[in-house]
Every structure is written in C-alpha cells, then in structure tokens.
Specification:
By secondary structure, the chain is mainly β. The chain has strands at residues 2-17, 24-39, 44-57, 69-81, 93-104, 106-108, 113-115, 122-137, 140-151, 156-167. The strands form 2 sheets. Strands 1-2-3-4-5-8-9-10 form an 8-stranded antiparallel β-barrel. A hairpin with a 6-residue loop joins strand 1 and strand 2.
Length: 174
C-alpha cells in the first residue's frame, strides 16, 4: 500500500527544410500528464490525473492552433501485473494495465483538432493495454507505454508515452 506520483509526456514533432526554397516547415505538439494515486494493495490503485499541452506549427491547418493551451483533468485506475522475471536488470521491471477517464478542452475528429473555450467540454478515455516501468534507484522508476485514445466523437488513435514515477510509501511488489 502507498502513494505514487509522476509525470509522463506524449507528443509529436516534425521539422523539414525544403532544399530548393530553404523554407522551414515545422509542427510540434506536446502534452504533459501529471498523476498521483493510492494503491490499496500491491497491485491495484486509483488516482487523479491532469494534462497540460501546447502546439506550434507553420503548416496549415495546424498553425491555427499556435499557442493554444490544451488541458484536462480526470481519474485513473492501474493494475500491476504480478510478474517477476528472475534475470538481472529485468527483475527491476514492473508491468501494468491502466484506464483513464478525463474531461478536456480539446477533442479530435478525422482531420482536425478542436479547442474549446469551455474548460471541460469533451470526454477522453485512455486505455493503456501494456506499460512497463524499471526501478532505477530506490522507489524512483522510469517507464513507457502505448496509449489508445478515444475521443467524444468516436475518433481513436494510438500514441506512445514515456515518463518517470516515484513510489512514496512502500514498494510495489511483483
């Protein structure tokens, strides 16, 4: 039992310089997720999560979102799979499944990202079918996972995230 907290980041970036015109083309989209949770036993926990993000681009139609602030708040549940691999380095690994439900000010359709002035207008569900973390020092972990995002308009896509986490009290056991 104990608390965990951490940050993850997900995003995309693209930069290109046309060799003929020397025009620079770029697009960046970054989201930072913060979370804190309580684990009721060694495998299952619930918590709260928040996201903050931004976008910069000179590519149409993405440039209309320059300096837009994306944000949201929600809840999550995580289950650590009780698996231990008795091989050096791999014995420090934790594997998990996670589900997140969040209210956001942004959503996505097939070709467009919409940002609303209404702070929490849209629903976003994230399913993490597989994530892994590695203990690097005491209760400090780095991790990575794939997220399946499902927006209000039934648009869905897969993103990759990476980040770090600290397990405040007690150690999660496999």
């Amino acid at each position: 039992m104990g608390f965990i907290g951490g940050l993850q980041t997900a995003g995309a970036g693209y930069q290109y310089k046309n060799p003929n015109t020397f025009e620079k083309i770029y697009h960046y989209n970054v989201h930072i997720d913060a979370h804190i949770g309580y684990f009721f036993n060694k495998n299952f926990g619930l918590g709260i999560t928040a996201v903050k993000g931004f976008s910069q681009s000179n590519i149409e139609p993405f440039s209309m979102y320059n300096n837009q602030k994306f944000h949201g708040i929600g809840v999550y549940g995580r289950y650590y799979i009780p698996l231990k691999i008795n091989i050096k380095v791999l014995d420090r690994m934790l594997f998990f499944l996670e589900v997140v439900y969040r209210k956001t000010n942004f959503t996505r359709t097939v070709n467009w990202v919409y940002v609303s002035g209404d702070p929490l207008k849209y629903n976003l569900t994230k399913i993490i079918p597989f994530g892994m973390q590695m203990r690097v020092w005491n209760n400090f972990f780095i991790g990575t996972s794939f997220e399946y995002l499902i927006f209000t308009e039934k648009i869905h896509y897969l993103v990759y995230r990476t980040g770090f986490e600290y397990h405040f009290k007690g150690k999660l056991k496999k």
